[in-house]
Specification:
Layout lengths: L1 H11 L2 E3 L2 E6 L2 E8 L4 E7 L6 H10 L1 H4 L1 E6 L3 E7 L6 H17 L15 E6 L2 E6 H20 L3 H22 L3 H21 L8 H28 L9 H10 L7 E3 L2 E3 L3 H18 L1 H11 L6 E6 L6 E2 L4
Parallel strand pairs: 2-12
Antiparallel strand pairs: 1-2, 2-3, 3-4, 4-6, 5-6, 7-8, 7-11, 9-10
Helix pairs in contact: 1-4, 6-7, 6-8, 7-8, 7-10, 7-11, 8-9, 8-10, 8-11
The structure holds zinc ion.
Zinc ion (ZN) binds next to strand 8.
């Protein structure tokens, strides 16, 4: 992956920041990242005028085969395209597409410029939320102070206690899909995702504080309520398995005794019935639930990490070169 970025830098004048290659090719500013073990490049072109999405779409459709284009996303001022195939995507191929696309864009009158005010002077490079943008000096300064204000606001508002309350309510609601769909395999992953989603939603709705403490709170809520969800499942299964008349069995009472079952091998007595819990089997279920819930909520938790550490408000000048990025020739 690095190799492809290095080639883009050596042969075509891109600059590199972290895992992103960026620069101007044929007058248009690009970000390029390599994903999926080197098989795809995600190429984003930034222009200052509003994009006529129909015309861009037509160009992409026409050239889909030629450049092996995958999905694309046309924004107001940017176009992102996947390029690649089942094999390693070559730097030459990336450049070939980029040069052609620049030809199309400049031919249609588009230019790159400051991502905020569209001016094409005093530009520098700013890292914002994972993207590298061309931004002019005055816009950078103005926006940087707005981001600082936002950081300040975050530091001063919300509380962890409210966040816990919201996350717990989300966690409780998150039990419902587990109870409805059972607890194993990918269903647990989907339920885990929903539980993570709901607890974060609850956290934010209740105005939980956005800060480092968010991560342990959300994770603790997920661990506890995943456990509870699996016990709910177990309760439903045991209730269903009772032979004969179930009228003497109280489901809440059964649930409460089952909650502690993984920690003790004492018999559970509900109504007329006696149940001997299998502690090892219970832990096996719970471990599996945690594992799949962890898988299901992985990307979600990654976002929680990003927000809690303020990465989403990142706004950093990474370089300047007199307003002109590297500008390689249009054709080789
Ligand atoms: Zn500007």
């Amino acid at each position: 992956m690095e190799n492809q970025l290095n080639l883009l830098s050596e042969n075509y004048g891109f600059k590199i920041e972290g895992k992103t290659a960026y620069g101007r090719i044929g007058g248009i500013f690009y970000n390029v990242i390599i994903v999926n073990f080197g098989t795809f490049a995600v190429i984003t072109a930034f222009v200052s005028g509003d994009i006529d999405s129909a015309a861009v779409k037509e160009y992409l459709k026409k050239n889909k085969r030629r450049f092996k284009l995958g999905q694309w996303e046309i924004g107001e001022k940017s176009v992102s395209v996947q390029l690649g195939s089942a094999t390693f995507v070559k730097a030459d191929k990336i450049h070939e597409f980029v040069a052609d696309f620049s030809g199309f864009l400049t031919g249609a009158g588009y230019r790159s410029g400051c991502a905020m005010c569209a001016k094409d002077e005093n530009l520098g490079y700013t890292l914002q939320n994972g993207q590298i943008l061309e931004i002019c000096n005055s816009c950078h300064i103005a926006f940087e102070s707005r981001m600082d204000e936002e950081k300040q606001t975050r530091a001063e508002t919300g509380s962890y206690a409210k966040g816990v309350a919201g996350a717990v309510i989300g966690g409780i609601l998150g039990i419902i899909p587990w109870a409805l769909f059972g607890a194993l395999g990918y269903i647990a992953a989907a339920s885990g995702f929903l539980m993570a989603f709901l607890s974060l939603k609850g956290y934010r709705l209740f105005k939980g504080k956005i800060g480092k403490g968010m991560v342990p709170i959300i994770i603790a809520v997920l661990i506890v309520f995943t456990y509870a969800a699996i016990i709910v499942n177990q309760t439903i299964a045991d209730y269903g398995a009772y032979p004969g008349d179930k009228s003497g069995v109280s489901i809440p009472a059964l649930f409460v005794s089952e909650l502690a079952a993984p920690f003790s091998s004492r018999d559970i007595i509900v109504g007329d019935y006696l149940l001997t819990p299998d502690t090892r089997a219970a832990w096996g279920q719970i471990a599996m639930g945690w594992f799949f819930a962890g898988l299901g909520s992985f990307f979600f938790l990654r976002d929680v990490f990003r927000i809690s550490s303020g990465k989403d408000l990142e706004f950093k000048r990474i370089g300047k070169d007199g307003g002109r990025g590297p500008d390689a020739p249009l054709s080789q």
